[in-house]
Each structure stands twice: as C-alpha cells, then as structure tokens.
Design brief:
By secondary structure, the protein is mainly α. The chain has one domain. It has 2 helices and no strands. The longest helix has 77 residues.
C-alpha cells in the first residue's frame, strides 16, 4: 500500500466513528465476559446442588436397603408366629377344657 492509499482510507473513516465503534465493541465484549462469569457461577452452584443431591440419594438408598432388611426380618417373624399359631390350633383339641 502506498501512502496515498492509506490517506484515502483514513479520510473515508472519520475518527469519531472509529472511536464509537471501538467503544461499542469494547463494551460488548465486557458484557459478554460479565455474562460468562455469571453463567460460570451458576454452573458452579448447579454442580454443588447435584453433588448434594447425589449424597442425599446415597443416604436414601442406604435407608431403603436397611428398611428392606427390617421388612424381611419382620416377615420371617410373622411367618414363624403364624406357624406357631397353626400348631397351637392343631394341638388345641388335646388340651382339656
């Protein structure tokens, strides 16, 4: 490029217009970076919420497993009691009245 062509370009783009465009781009980029910071903070909150939920889910699963064991124990006890009652009813006829 020659000096003459640079001068023609400079004369076509007035300085206030260049300053306004530069400021607009800088402000827009600042807004984008601010929005990215906000999104990043939100994602960190979501990640911590997910970790807390996962920990709670583990606790719930353990509680359910313990409850299942307790239910099976109670069912076994009820089955034993039913057989004892049935045996008592069968032997009841041998008891004096």
């Amino acid at each position: 490029m020659t000096t003459e062509s640079i001068t023609k370009i400079d004369s076509k783009l007035p300085l206030p217009w260049l300053l306004v465009c530069t400021a607009t781009i800088a402000i827009a980029l600042g807004g984008v970076f601010a929005k990215l910071d906000t999104v990043s903070a939100t994602l960190k909150d979501v990640q911590s919420d997910i970790k807390a939920r996962d920990a709670n889910q583990v606790i719930v699963n353990q509680t359910v497993a313990l409850q299942d064991v307790a239910i099976k124990q109670v069912q076994a006890e009820v089955t034993g009691l039913k057989s004892s009652v049935a045996e008592l009813q069968r032997n009841q006829r041998f008891y004096p009245k």
